[in-house]
């Protein structure tokens, strides 16, 4: 495989704005998921920084982007640790508020021996992200190549961020997770809609369980206004749906240990590749390799690879998943 080269001059980084969530992840590893009312003895416990917004920001930063973050944390130890971690990644957090009105968001993540996970989120301070705060960050969004958003923050604030990006000619990558009802007008402002099978089904009304149903769901989402739909399907790869039709880009075969943050890594890596000027399929492929590396490691941000690691794997595999 020929690794694509950035359109940016040496030393210049694409600028990405992320509006989203910041959490502290409490990760429990056990042989299997507990049933209702059952106690299962775990094998490991980790406290790691997370949150879909923060994960995607870290993924973009490790792929070489200049990342600016808009969000909220609590005025507590978890918030301090989360902001310190983002700063270590070189992420600009001027637009992150710290408030005593709520605790920093927390996610309880349960991972079984097959690498599958279940997650419970207490959003906390993430719900304090207001439309006014987003509007105060308009210049940050306007001077970025791409805006990245998810739905662990208030919907009205995310909608306003997308509206600002659209008005300023900034491309939008939207990962509507966790899934929430979204109107067509909002979807029509999205350049790249990134969804998994569950999110695609909830937003399209089409149950996704194979390639044919994935295409139908993507068609429905495009009919609602999304310009390009990227439907991530784990080991089955990614369905790319746009004006030029539908195609599947295969997953990269690896031994999965923990699937936490694989989707977030995909979003961050994809956005940076697009901002560098890569063709759509090449950007999806690079993001697939980044996500593949993530699932071979435990945790969220701790598992996200650097660009050098992604390029090494791509070169090693010579483009063969």
TrEMBL record:
Cofactor(s) recorded in Swiss-Prot or TrEMBL: Mg(2+)
The protein's name: Ribokinase
Binding site for substrate: 23-25, 51-55, 152, 264
Signal peptide: none
Location within or outside the cell: Cytoplasm
Subunit and interaction comment: Homodimer.
Tree of life domain: Bacteria
Keywords: ATP-binding, Carbohydrate metabolism, Cytoplasm, Kinase, Magnesium, Metal-binding, Nucleotide-binding, Potassium, Transferase
Example of a GO MF term: ribokinase activity
Its biological purpose: Catalyzes the phosphorylation of ribose at O-5 in a reaction requiring ATP and magnesium. The resulting D-ribose-5-phosphate can then be used either for sythesis of nucleotides, histidine, and tryptophan, or as a component of the pentose phosphate pathway.
Regulation (activators, inhibitors): Activated by a monovalent cation that binds near, but not in, the active site. The most likely occupant of the site in vivo is potassium. Ion binding induces a conformational change that may alter substrate affinity.
EC class of the enzyme, as a word: transferase
A Pfam entry, by short name: PfkB
Gene designation per UniProt: rbsK
């Amino acid at each position: 495989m020929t690794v694509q080269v950035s359109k940016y001059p040496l030393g210049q980084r694409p600028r990405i704005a992320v509006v989203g969530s910041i959490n502290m992840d409490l990760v429990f590893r056990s042989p299997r998921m507990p049933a209702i009312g059952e106690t299962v003895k775990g094998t490991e416990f980790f406290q790691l920084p997370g949150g879909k917004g923060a994960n995607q920001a870290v993924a973009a930063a490790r792929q070489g982007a200049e990342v600016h973050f808009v969000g909220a944390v609590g005025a507590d130890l978890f918030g301090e640790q989360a902001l310190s971690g983002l700063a270590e990644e070189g992420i600009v957090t001027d637009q992150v508020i710290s408030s005593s009105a709520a605790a920093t968001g927390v996610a309880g993540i349960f991972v079984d021996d097959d690498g599958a996970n279940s997650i419970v989120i207490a959003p906390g301070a993430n719900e304090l992200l207001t439309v006014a705060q987003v509007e105060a960050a308009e210049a940050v969004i306007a001077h970025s190549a791409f805006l990245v958003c998810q739905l662990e923050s208030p919907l009205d604030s995310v909608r306003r961020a997308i509206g600002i990006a659209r008005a300023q000619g900034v491309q939008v990558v939207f990962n509507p997770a966790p899934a929430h009802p979204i109107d067509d007008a909002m979807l029509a402002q999205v350049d790249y809609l990134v969804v998994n099978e569950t999110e695609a089904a909830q937003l399209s009304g089409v149950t996704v369980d194979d390639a044919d149903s994935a295409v139908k769901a993507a068609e429905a989402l495009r009919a609602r206004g999304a310009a390009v739909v990227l439907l991530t399907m784990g080991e089955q790869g990614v369905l790319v749906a746009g004006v030029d039709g539908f195609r599947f880009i295969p997953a990269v075969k690896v031994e999965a240990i923990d699937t936490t943050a694989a989707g977030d890594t995909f979003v961050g890596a994809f956005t940076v590749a697009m901002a560098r000027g890569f063709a759509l399929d090449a950007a999806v492929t690079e993001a697939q390799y980044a996500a593949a590396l993530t699932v071979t490691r435990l945790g969220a941000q701790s598992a996200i690879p650097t660009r050098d690691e992604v390029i090494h794997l791509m070169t090693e595999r010579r483009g063969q998943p």
